[in-house]
Amino acid sequence: MSKLVVPALCLCLWSAPSWGQSADPSTQPEAVAAEAVDAQPVPEQIHVVAQRPGPGMWKVSKGDHVLWVFGTYSPLPKNVEWRSRQVEAVIGRSQEYLAPPGASANPGLFKSITLLPYMIGMRKNPDGHQLRDLMPPEDHARWTALKAKYMPDNEDVERERPLFAAQALVRSARLQAGLDSDYAVRKRVLELVKNHKLKVTSSNVELPMDNARGLLKDFKKNSLKDVACLSTTMATLDSDIAEASVRAAAWSKGNVEEIRKLNIAARDEACFDSLFDSAMFDKEPAFKNMKTNMREKWLASAEKALANNSSSFAMLPIKDVLDPKGVIAALAARGYTVEQPD
After folding, report:
1. What is the predicted pLDDT for the residue at 130?
2. 80 or 102: which carries more pLDDT confidence?
3. 165 to each of 11, 122, 238, 309, how far by Cα in Å?
4. 130 closest CA partner among 150, 144, 117
5. Which pLDDT value is given to residue 234?
6. Rounded to an integer, what distance in angstroms lies between the CA atom of residue 333 and that of residue 326?
7. Nearest in space to 206 (alpha carbons), one of 104, 101, 100
8. How do residues 130-154 score in pLDDT, each as one tens digit?
9. 126 Rama class: left (phi>0) / alpha (psi -120 to 50) / beta
10. Is the peptide bond before 75 cis (omega within 30 degrees of 0)?
11. Which of 18-22, 24-28, 75-79 has the weakest average pLDDT?
12. What is the C-alpha separation between 62 and 93, in angstroms, rounded?
């Protein structure tokens, strides 16, 4: 029950499919006419059953103590069978596993039940607004074309906040193209961690639930600056879908230079900022500073693991591994030696 409120304000981001691994970060997506969107053919479904080694691992070290970091990528073609002997070998000789940064909240069973009524209608725009009321005409025209292409039967989405509409659009487009999350890869890694009995260290940040009722009420009645989230998602959606297999292949072959060309942050930042930079979190520092707190907690865990273990293993989204402001760059700035895979 408590997972329904993790909190609900965060779930819209944690559960949203990420298109952060997209276009070249040096370019801003240009506007595309709605007619052009219609003209593009729906990509063929991708059904790939093949063993993929995944990329090599980043090596963070100080002296003879090493932290190996495996970067995951999403989306991947459905039915991919993944296996990496190198990852298996590293886990087999490691003492500790560092889980990716995250945030959670545990209001307890009774409080979860009392909060459920306040969650009703969270996805909808305040004051009965629809997407056409919030978006510039050219953006809404593009939205209409993409909706007809990827989710023609979903009429309820017109009343949803742009943030949630973006989530629904990406999910439907992926399903249509035969794409899935990186769940199978992460599941296999966690099985190996369990089989080799590594110590598991979580870097989860616990969010306070004292004012959960007030936050939910504020969220429902206040608008967000989330039109940019949907606009950014739409701008590269078709190209992302069409090129997904190419990008997945770059990851699976460990082509780091090709992966570096991807836009790691644009959509994630637009959607995250639209929520947590809103005024309703001004008096909630734990939420406002959530991303920073998650980052710092993971870094503290990484430094402790490097001090205590001869070998440690971590799994992170590859966008976080390559982020010039991310945790791996931060470890390098703190004096650790960082080597990328060959």
Report:
1. 94
2. 102
3. 14, 13, 16, 45
4. 144
5. 93
6. 11
7. 104
8. 999 999 999 999 999 999 999 999 9
9. beta
10. yes
11. 24-28
12. 17
At 77 the three-state DSSP class reads strand
In total, the chain counts a number of residues equal to 342
- C-alpha angle 285-301-310 in degrees, rounded to nearest 5: 170
pTM of the model: 0.77
Q: For residue 198, what is the DSSP state?
A: -
> What contacts 249, CB < 8 A, 6 or more positions away?
255
Q: How far is CA 45 from its chain centroid?
A: 23
Check residue 115 and give its pLDDT: 60
DSSP string over 275-331: HHTSGGGTT-HHHHTHHHHHHHHHHHHHHHHHHH-SEEEEEEEHHHHH-TTSHHHHH
pLDDT in the model for residue 57: 92
Please tell me the distance from the alpha carbon of residue 97 to that of residue 91, in angstroms, as a whole number: 8
DSSP H helical ranges for 136-226: 137-150, 162-177, 183-195, 212-221
Beta bridge partners of residue 175, listed in sequence order: none
Pairing state of beta strands 96-98 and 65-72?
Answer: unpaired
Return the DSSP state at 160. B
Residues 6+ apart with CB under 8 A from 178: 45, 46, 47, 77, 78
Question: How far apart (Å, rounded) are the C-alpha atoms in residues 84 and 56?
Answer: 9
Q: CB under 8 Å to 118, separation ≥6 — which residues? A: 213, 216, 217, 220
Those residues with Cβ within 8 angstroms of residue 126's Cβ, 6 or more apart along the chain or in another chain: 220, 221, 222, 223
Structure tokens at 32: 């595309």
Residue showing tokens 């001869």? 310
Strand order in the sheet with 65-72: 199-201, 96-98, 311-317, 65-72, 58-62, 337-339
Burial grade of 303 (CB within 10 A; 0-12, 13-18, 19 or more) = middle
Q: What is the mean pLDDT of the chain?
A: 78
For 34, the 3-state DSSP assignment is helix
Q: Which residues contact 296 (CB under 8 A, 6 or more apart)?
A: none
